[in-house]
Design a protein that fits this description.
By secondary structure, the chain is α/β, with parallel strands linked by helices. It is built from 13 helices and 15 strands. The strands form four sheets. Strands 2-8-7-6-5-3-4 form a seven-stranded mixed β-sheet, with helices on both faces. A four-stranded antiparallel β-sheet has the order 9-10-15-12. Strands 1-11 form a two-stranded parallel ribbon.
Length: 395
């Protein structure tokens, strides 16, 4: 039995998406910048996809959708696209739980002399809007706060945060890669200036993403070239993958109202089934949470349990042997395991931050999958942790 519970990492392309990609590859493979018939066909495919993606987030103007190679490029275009408009370093505000696609570009700006404020979060990973108000400076030019945290599932109060930023005349960007298609991500209601998306998080193909740019917002391109995508993203577009992105976005919009409640039910069922496990602590906010997202930290049974003996990656490997795919938040650098920066920012100890695991659900997840996973996860924990307790002499 094989069960895939890593939908936040990537989703399997839908059959409708694969059909569309294959059709474009074989029949409408022209360069959309060309003036002849083949180019016109490809250009029409591009604009259809642009409308479909715009509809997913209720963007009034399809031209506000700038196609990129993925969510990471969209995030980088938002951060550097604003920053490079200034000849001297200014001030940017992010949170302490941003995805590396935001955290790393901002770190590079910091090395160039930019001032960076990283807003703290509570134990559930949520920002207090008052902290944003307190962090604003006269030279603040951008606030970038993740919509739904990919590791612990917490959804931020974006609408309220945008109002604070705009009151001070500051632009606001959000990485909505995990939220779009699962929650009602409406750029008109949120009133964000910039918003990032990714195709392969909504059953599209890896290699396409988009940045929503509110009309009137000026960005400096990341690189020069032929001036495609409104002169913001030069390079011949990946028409087949973008076409698949459009189909995925259209289907996500059509199905969200019935799929999201189903995912919430499965998510809560898994939390409930694991509630009696003494070795797991739920992480993230249970109320303000991505509908498909379940996450835990491994609780050490005593102070003598060394973190290198059992970590989130240990559990990932054990479940993989059982045919179940999940992920962990800790990262391995040069052979040394590093604790999750997100869990550290939320106030967890280094030991706990080494033991984060994430189980994310999707279209193909069934109740039977949830029940089987809960049983296997308990068996793995009951086998590993008591053995360590015996070895370490914990009581």
């Amino acid at each position: 039995m094989q069960i895939y519970l890593d939908y936040s990492a990537t989703t399997p392309p839908r059959s409708e998406v694969i059909t569309q990609v294959n059709e474009i590859l074989t029949q409408q493979w022209g360069n959309p910048s060309s003036l002849h018939l083949w180019g016109q066909r490809a250009a029409m495919v591009m604009e259809t996809a642009r409308v479909q993606v715009a509809h997913l987030i209720n963007a009034a103007d399809p031209e506000s959708i700038i196609f990129t190679s993925g969510g990471t490029e969209a995030d980088n275009l938002a951060i550097f696209g604003i920053a490079r408009r200034y000849t001297t370093p200014q001030h940017i505000i992010i949170s302490t739980v941003e995805h590396p696609a935001i955290a790393e570009p901002v770190r590079r700006l910091e090395q160039e002399g930019w001032q960076i404020t990283r807003l703290p979060v509570n134990r559930q990973g949520r920002i207090n809007p008052l902290d944003l108000s307190a962090g604003i400076q006269p030279n603040t030019v951008l606030v970038s706060i993740i919509y739904g945290q990919s590791e612990v599932g917490t959804v931020q109060p974006i609408e309220e945060l945008v109002k604070i930023a705009h009151y001070h005349g500051i632009l606001f960007h959000t990485d909505a890669v995990q939220g779009a298609g699962r929650l009602s991500v409406d750029v008109q209601r949120l009133n964000v200036d910039l918003l990032s998306l990714s195709a392969h998080k909504i059953y599209g193909v890896q290699g396409a993403g988009a940045l929503y740019v509110r009309p009137g917002i000026k960005l400096t391109p990341l690189f020069g070239g032929g001036g495609q995508e409104g002169k913001l993203r030069s390079g011949t577009q990946a028409v087949p993958i973008i076409a698949g992105f459009g189909v995925a976005a259209e289907l996500a919009a059509e199905e969200r109202e019935r799929e999201t409640p189903r995912l919430i039910g499965l998510r809560d069922r898994l939390f409930d089934l694991m509630a009696d496990c003494p070795y797991l602590v739920p992480t993230g906010d249970r109320l303000y949470r991505l509908p498909h997202h379940v996450s835990f930290a491994i609780a050490a049974p005593c102070d003598y349990l060394h973190p290198e003996n059992i970590t989130g990656k240990t559990i990932v490997r054990q479940l993989n042997l059982a045919g179940i795919a999940i992920s962990s938040g800790s990262a391995c650098h040069s052979g040394k395991l590093s604790p999750s920066p997100v869990l550290l920012a939320m106030g967890y100890s280094e030991t706990e931050a080494l033991g984060g695991i994430r189980l994310t659900l999707g279209r193909h997840t069934t109740e039977a999958d949830i029940d089987w996973t809960a049983m296997v996860l308990k068996q793995v924990l009951n086998r590993l942790i008591p053995e360590l307790v015996t070895v370490s002499g914990c009581k």
